[in-house]
């Protein structure tokens, strides 16, 4: 029987999915997209797909009352968990997952942008999704919020400025704070969009030039490990669906 598609959830007009689509398709799965920000698109049923990937947003969980689509995301996440559909939350998606499990989401102690080091925990050593990351790997960040760990979750990755960087809820549900999906074009589009509103440095602590210089040093390896992460997710989805 053919594998059902993996659902990509778009939560921001600037979301291009970076390397994600090619990585998932190269791993042998089809991609279906739900534009959650489009009010004319109904929330899909997770039972119709083999897995769900919920991506980032310029909105935060705190905007749920003014942005109704965020509550729709919470419902989709809960339905995925209840139906045991494999789920992967990226940045905002990791926060929505925590929120759906009644964990607190709040402002982080620092705002993170650009490439920052991460530190896998002992729980990540044999993790199906993230065991290929090593201590000190540089990953791309752009967020101002963080989350408490949901009850029963295992912390997989920590950071220097923001401790909670990745966690596992069960053998088919993950939240990852950093943007392992991003590519160079998407970085440039995000920088350009923010530049239309303000300078990056006063708000985020780095200049566009600093972020670009970090990308020159770290992006190739970041993309390689990001592609492997998506491939591992497809492998896990395939094993569950078999």
Compute the separation of the termini in Å.
9 Å
- Shape, please? globular
The CATH superfamily bears the name: Class I glutamine amidotransferase (GATase) domain
Please identify the top-level CATH class.
Alpha Beta
CATH arch. level architecture: 3-Layer(aba) Sandwich
| Sheet/helix structural class | alpha/beta
Descriptive keywords:
33% helix, alpha/beta, 24% strand, 6 helices, Rossmann fold, nine-stranded mixed beta sheet, 242 residues
Describe what you observe in this structure.
- With 242 residues, the protein is α/β, with parallel strands linked by helices.
- It has one domain (6-241): Class I glutamine amidotransferase (GATase) domain (Rossmann fold, 3-Layer(aba) Sandwich).
- 33% of the residues lie in helices and 24% in strands.
- The protein has helices at residues 20-26, 69-82, 92-100, 184-195, 200-204, 208-241; strands spanning 6-10, 31-35, 51-54, 87-90, 105-120, 138-147, 154-159, 166-170, 173-176.
- The mean pLDDT is 97.
In short:
Helices cover 33% and strands 24% of the residues. It has 242 residues and is an alpha/beta fold.
Ordered list of secondary-structure elements with their pairings:
Layout: E1 6-10, H1 20-26, E2 31-35, E3 51-54, H2 69-82, E4 87-90, H3 92-100, E5 105-120, E6 138-147, E7 154-159, E8 166-170, E9 173-176, H4 184-195, H5 200-204, H6 208-241
Parallel strand pairs: 1-2, 1-3, 3-4, 4-9
Antiparallel strand pairs: 5-6, 5-7, 7-8, 8-9
